[in-house]
Amino acid sequence: MARQQPPQRAWDDYFIPGTSVLRNKFTGPGQPYGETDQARLTAREEHRTRLRLIELRSHPIPGRFDYDHMKAIHRHVFQDVYEWAGEERTAPSGPMFKEGHAYYPAGPALTQAAEEQYAKIAGANYLRGMERGAFVAELGERWGELNVVHSFREGNTRTQFAFFSQLATQAGYRLDTEAFKVGNPLRAEFVAARFEGQDTGSNRRLVAVLDRAITAAPPPGPGSGPHPERGPVAPTSSVHAASFPNPPTTRSPGTSSTSTSRARGGRGRSGPEVGR
Questions:
Q1: Residue 20 confidence (pLDDT) above 50
Q2: Domains present along the chain, CATH in parentheses
Q3: What would the pLDDT profile of 167-187 be if each residue is shown by its tens digit?
Q4: Alpha carbon distance 164, 169 (integer Å)
Q5: pLDDT at 228 over 70
Q6: Which comes out higher in pLDDT, residue 17 or 234?
Q7: Is the dihedral of CA 229, 233, 235, 236 positive or negative?
Q8: Predicted pLDDT at 229
């Protein structure tokens, strides 16, 4: 059965008419498009998504660490806030900018760029069997490239942390997400490193930042990883209970692919990007 395509939204369609506030699910009398006050929307959004992220700590979403998996995580985290949760953004048609840094334009180039990065994750055997230095380098490379793709209209960073934390755990490492909380020094360095990667095409600074927050994880118990076609095992507090992919090993353990192929398109400003 053909996959149902999400509706095509123009840039302005994401906003409540006459405002710069994103349409949202917090509707009510006089607010048919959702909460109109940006400060209140931010507070309510952060509260709801925080609860959803907590859920993912004990019940991670099973998947193959591909585009569908990333979309499923975004859908779960933002399901209470946006109708388009889990959908690839469909605007702007030109490059999207945030603080002067360019992201991919919406459309086929974005989709292709995203799929290429997930294929590299699979091609690297989901980063399993790598010694720590190679693992951190590969993780930073894929994270930096998927960030410049910026698949979603809002909430990319939170979704990326959930996705890459789960990817790290199934590969035998732990990403300390608490170190990247807003207000912590490593958070500012993380943001600056991603912007530098966008501007220069090099993710070395991002790799160095992630290197300070990654440790070896304790091995999972026997039988904790189910077959990918059969879904998750009984609920447990470990991310290792999530569905592990079982791909053919196409790369030698310990190797790293660090190419940075980008197709951002032209450098025209298409509007602000307010996502986090």
A1: yes
A2: 35-89+104-219 (1.10.3290.10)
A3: 999 999 999 999 999 999 999
A4: 8
A5: no
A6: 17
A7: negative
A8: 31
